[in-house]
Batch of 2 targets.
Target 1
Amino acid sequence: MKEGSDPALVLQVERDSPAWQAGVVSGDVLLAVNGIKVSAKDVSEKLSLSSQPPFTLHMFRRDELRQMQLTPVLQPNGKAKVKPVAKPNALQKALNAAWLGVAWPKEESAQ
């Protein structure tokens, strides 16, 4: 949402998210959730106070009033982290090389 916008202007929709699957697109102007007016700053709060999902979204798209059903899903807390494996096996090295596009570094021999 565009920060501080009232009504709430959608700037970006994450691919394959519940909003994406419901048909929400960038540029939509979200007016209400389950008939309750929302703004960019209170949309999360209003969603949490609303009755059980699915939620009914009321919005404008290019001056046309639309209504969509949205069923939210729980998202994991925090951000995902990639951690190195202490002693990777050959498959792990190959997957790492395929992902990064560079070969696994040669290991130094114990001297």
Note: Residues 90-100 form the longest helix (11 residues).
Target 2
Amino acid sequence: MISTYLTPPARQDLGVRLLAPEEACDFEYWAARLVHVELLRNAVAVALYRLPLLAVPAGMGRRGGSMDVGFAGYAELAARELHGRPGFHGVAAVGTDVVWGEPVPKDLPPDARRQFFGLHAQPQNRPLTAYQWQVCHA
């Protein structure tokens, strides 16, 4: 039996919309982990079908990014939408993933991988300050 979670929606339902970063269901996850929260300024929520996920650009020590969107058709559409946006250089669909920035070196140890993506070792239990919120929405 094939799960409906593994079956892509009907072709007419395929669509990608870019929304404000705070519309992403994982916005707080990324805000708590990014070393440079200012990257959220050029981040976008990529709404696939009904689920908006945050795409965080490269820059400020973050060398690249990626997101698994589940289906190759979505990956191609999302890559097309992100093309030309600041921090999304080299954006491409690779199978079900959308990737941008530098290619991730193979066999990176966990700490080096975290640094490659510009992330703290542990989530920061801090709300965005008024300044950080303003910078993200400038």
Note: The two ends are 49 Å apart (CA to CA).
